[in-house]
Design goal:
205 residues; alpha+beta; OB fold (Dihydrolipoamide Acetyltransferase, E2P); 2 domains; 5-stranded mixed beta barrel; two-stranded antiparallel ribbon; 8 strands; 21% strand; globular; disordered N terminus
């Protein structure tokens, strides 16, 4: 039974994007019925979309890449994109792998707090994530593991963190290249951009 429940949960999470599509009502009904039938709480199977401005504690489920997480929150599981920063993609090696490793190292304790900022084009929750040690996104910038999206973020603390990482030639700032501007790299690599979008939908990092 536990094996069946685990399998169903993985399938539901990898198909969460269907909920917002034309077959959404049928997908929701199917998951709810199966969750009751198998004794699995539906809160861990259906995606939770918290309101902008909400604050609450969550538990880390897994790190998908350098700026995307799956969390178990009071309303259910949610996919979170770290606010204000942009880490190299998995197709930008070794930078994408290093960014993910840095994020994993910053989240050694599973308990985090969320401050919801927005939703992105992939229907992910965009939020600041705080570990017991502080702002995780800010720590990524200080480590040189990600770039700042200056178009969206004007926080002087974030800008100073990037300036110091660049001055110290840390992480992505050690060698010039498109890994320093992953949003531009995605624009000129549409195939990789589509592959990244698919990984975000299915949860395959």
């Amino acid at each position: 039974m536990e094996c069946r429940i685990g399998w169903l949960t993985r399938i539901a999470r990898r198909s969460w994007w269907l909920v917002s599509g034309p077959v959404g009502p049928f997908a929701v009904a199917t998951v709810v019925v199966l969750s009751f039938a198998l004794g699995q709480p539906e809160r861990l199977m259906l995606p939770y979309r918290p309101e902008v401005g909400a604050h609450f504690a969550c538990k880390l489920l897994r790190v998908l890449d350098g700026d995307t997480l799956d969390l178990d929150c009071p309303g259910g599981w949610t996919r979170v994109r770290l606010w204000g920063m942009d880490a190299p993609e998995q197709g930008q090696q070794p930078w994408g792998r290093q960014a993910r490793q840095t994020l994993v190292a910053l989240l050694q304790q599973p308990q985090v707090r969320l401050k919801v900022r927005d939703r992105d084009r992939y229907d992910r929750t965009v939020a600041q994530v705080f570990s017991p040690a502080g702002d995780v996104g800010l720590a990524m910038l200080r480590a040189g593991a990600a770039s700042l999206r200056t178009r969206y973020v004007r926080d002087p603390v974030y800008r100073q963190a990037v300036a110091e990482a660049r001055a110290g030639r840390l992480g992505i700032w050690s060698v010039p290249g498109w890994h320093q501007r992953p949003w531009v790299w995605r624009r000129y690599n549409p195939r990789e951009r589509r592959a990244g979008a698919a990984r975000r939908r299915t949860g395959r990092g």
